Amino acid sequence: MKLSGNTILITGGNGGIGLALTKAFTKAENTVIICGRNEASLQFAKSGNDNIITKQCDLTQQAERDELVQWILQNYPSFNVIINNAGIFEETDLLSDSFDLDKINKQLVIDLQVPIELCLRFLPHLRKQPHAAIVNITSGLVYAPEAGAPFYGVAKAGVHAFTQTARYQLRDTKLKVFEVLPPLVDTGGVSKQLDIEKLGGAMDADETADEILKGLSHDTEEIRIGDIKWLYAASRIAPEFTNKKVNEKAEKARQSDNH
Ligand SMILES: NC(=O)c1ccc[n+]([C@@H]2O[C@H](COP(=O)([O-])OP(=O)(O)OC[C@H]3O[C@@H](n4cnc5c(N)ncnc54)[C@H](OP(=O)(O)O)[C@@H]3O)[C@@H](O)[C@H]2O)c1
Q1: Domain around 195
Q2: CA-closest candidate to residue 209, choices 122, 53, 82, 85
Q3: Residue 166's closest CA among 210, 132, 211?
Q4: Does some domain include residue 2?
Q5: Residue 1 within a domain
Q6: 140 domain residue, yes or no
Q7: pLDDT by residue (tens digit) across 45-74?
Q8: Which of 185, 196, 207, 225, when mutated, tests ligand 1's pocket best, judged by the most ligand atoms within 8 Å of its CB?
């Protein structure tokens, strides 16, 4: 896809990988609309830049999603790229005696329902644009789910499947459909619950954004970043072994945390 002159919505463009993407796309001369719950971090991301438009929005709330969609369609006719980035990472111990179903449902809403719903609600508009793209940020864990975070895995695998099916159905349109599969990225958000050192290090968010832009500029449909290239290959050659290795590594990091 072309990397400049777009009007891009980045959900969660005020933090972590989203903020790095906001900076990179603004530098490349795009108009960037960002949404998130935290007004202070939205304003920090904007830092007075007229090419960054902010909208406070809790995407888990249906009424706020409705308002966001209407506001964009009414005010930004040139809107042509959506980056579904906002997400949360929660762990769930399936050996517990009870489960916080509200928390699990909330994770499924932000990580699974929201990206699919935003794609569907913007599709008719995006298909009319001369250049348009959907970019869904999932995770390398779609190739080997991490047992400690089962519902994160469920959600990301769901978006992965939706992205593949959308790409196939839309193959004869001008709308391009991309998926980004990041490795562990040091964002203080999704990665904050994990011991980065014990997991062998994490990628820098700005470096991740650069890799994403590079992949988009080459029209790479599944943009596998850093170690995820190897994880993908390993999961194809030896899926059970790869699953075991991913989980052993994560478990070790957790066990040594507890001691
Ligand atoms: N970091 C990693 O290691 C990693 C690895 C693979 C994939 N990913 C994926 O990359 C994406 C970004 O991850 P990250 O690490 O950059 O996360 P992050 O640092 O926690 O940032 C998440 C962003 O999403 C926004 N957000 C969260 N809940 C929201 C809600 N209910 N409504 C609106 N905005 C919401 C947050 O803004 P507010 O707090 O203001 O709402 C924030 O800007 C996620 O989809 C994640 O699954 C991350």
Answers
A1: 7-258
A2: 85
A3: 132
A4: no
A5: no
A6: yes
A7: 999 999 999 999 999 999 999 999 999 999
A8: 185
Q: CATH no. for residue 167?
A: 3.40.50.720
**Closest protein CA for atom 33 of ligand 1:** 36
Residue type, 108: L
Rounded Cα distance between 46 and 59, Å, is 19
pLDDT tens digits, 205-251: 999 999 999 999 999 999 999 999 999 999 999 999 999 999 998 88
Domain count, the chain: 1
Residues 6+ apart with CB under 8 A from 94: 150
Distance, CA of 240 to CA of 245 (rounded, Å)? 9
Is 152 among the residues known to form the active site? Answer: yes
pLDDT tens digits for range 137-182: 999 999 999 999 999 999 999 999 999 999 999 999 999 999 999 9
Q: Whose CA is nearest to atom 8 of ligand 1?
A: 139
CA of 240 to the centre of ligand 1 (A): 29
